[in-house]
Specification:
Blueprint: H1 3-23, H2 30-68, H3 71-86, H4 89-92, E1 96-98, H5 110-118, E2 122-129, E3 133-138, E4 145-147, E5 153-155, E6 160-161, E7 168-170, E8 175-177, E9 182-183, H6 189-194, E10 200-204, E11 210-211, E12 227-229
Parallel strand pairs: 1-2, 1-7, 7-10, 8-11, 10-12
Antiparallel strand pairs: 2-3, 3-6, 4-5, 8-9
Amino acid sequence: MDWGKQFGILVQIMRTVAIFAQKRLHKLPLAVIITFYKRLSIRFTEGERKLTHSKKEMRKAYLARLQQLDQNTRLREQHRLAQKLYDLPQWTNAKTVALTMSQSFELDTAPLILHARHEGKRVLVPRTLPKRQMEFVQIDEDTEFEETGFGVLEPLAGKVLQPQEIDLIVVPGVAFTADGKRLGFGGGYYDRYLANYLGQTVSLALTTQLADAAEWPVEDHDVMIGQVVNLEQE
């Protein structure tokens, strides 16, 4: 059963509980009341577990699609997406841009970094911190990097900028919807950071990463992307 149906059933259960509580609850023994609420709690918890499992399965499926994408298609699409990004006012007006150090199966961000540097923009990349937090560090031609346990390059040193100092963050992800929903890699780093960020956000979606709006459930901590650049917009 999908999350929409589970949610509808939960709403009906809660309405029944409200009526039941108003009319009958005061007449029942305490043990019966406790049992009733325990059963309701178990059913809701099972729904949450199914929700998490569904999101993990979607992430696994889209990662597999990314890894199977042929190199020629990837190169062709990422070049077109980059050109669309450079034409956006969010990019042209930004003086400080946060990007990522991409992995081999992702859209290659090296050309984006080089282009931003060529335009005189200040370029930042993320560095992870304990408790699944992260910060953005300014990089230049002298920056030294180290590889993390996730296989991602992070700067060893450099100036850390605060969220309010960043004009644009190009947010990575596993999959996106055209209206801004994002399926991340599962660590929650970007959602935590973006919760305190008020600037512009853009994501670039390869065709294989573009999803339908209802393919996964959106949770309270999920942060929407300001604009998802994709090739179906052409």
